[in-house]
Design goal:
- The protein is of the alpha+beta class.
- The protein contains five helices and five strands.
- It has a three-stranded antiparallel β-sheet with strand order 3-5-4. It has a two-stranded antiparallel sheet with strand order 1-2.
- A hairpin with a 2-residue loop joins strand 4 (about 80-85) and strand 5.
- Helix 1 packs antiparallel against helix 3 (about 65-75).
- The longest helix is centred in the middle third of the chain and has 14 residues, at about 65-75.
- The termini are far apart.
Length: about 120
């Protein structure tokens, strides 16, 4: 069961549950990364956007579906989210994923980048 880690900046009731590094499961990470929309989110976070508001992503789905995708990523341990004012900010958990599954995120992101790169 995911733990709720304290977030000093979050007002009461605005804390989000995140699995600890040890609780991150390979099946959950692979499931989360298998969806093209979620993979797009992870690619954008990996491409230099340390903290990004959920509304900053240009995704081809409704707001409620976008919320679902972020929840799947968070509960799988792929991203960490926190509130800054009224915005929910997301950050890729690169270090935690690298600790649990060395090389996995790098390999998945490289494969994803190749799949969208134009053929020459």
């Amino acid at each position: 069961m995911p733990t709720t880690e304290p977030d000093a900046a979050a007002p009461s009731g605005r804390r989000l549950a995140h699995p600890s590094t040890e609780e991150i499961r390979l099946e959950g990470v692979l499931h989360a990364l298998a969806d093209p929309v979620r993979l797009t989110i992870v690619r954008e976070l990996a491409d230099g956007h340390a903290d990004m508001a959920c509304i900053a992503f240009d995704l081809p789905v409704s707001k409620s579906t976008t919320t679902h995708h972020f929840k799947v990523l968070r509960e799988a341990g792929v991203i960490r989210q926190h509130y800054e004012g009224t915005s929910r900010m997301s950050r890729l958990r690169e270090d935690d994923l690298g600790t649990r599954f060395p090389g996995l995120l790098t390999a998945v992101l490289e494969a994803a980048r190749r799949s969208v790169a134009p053929s020459v």
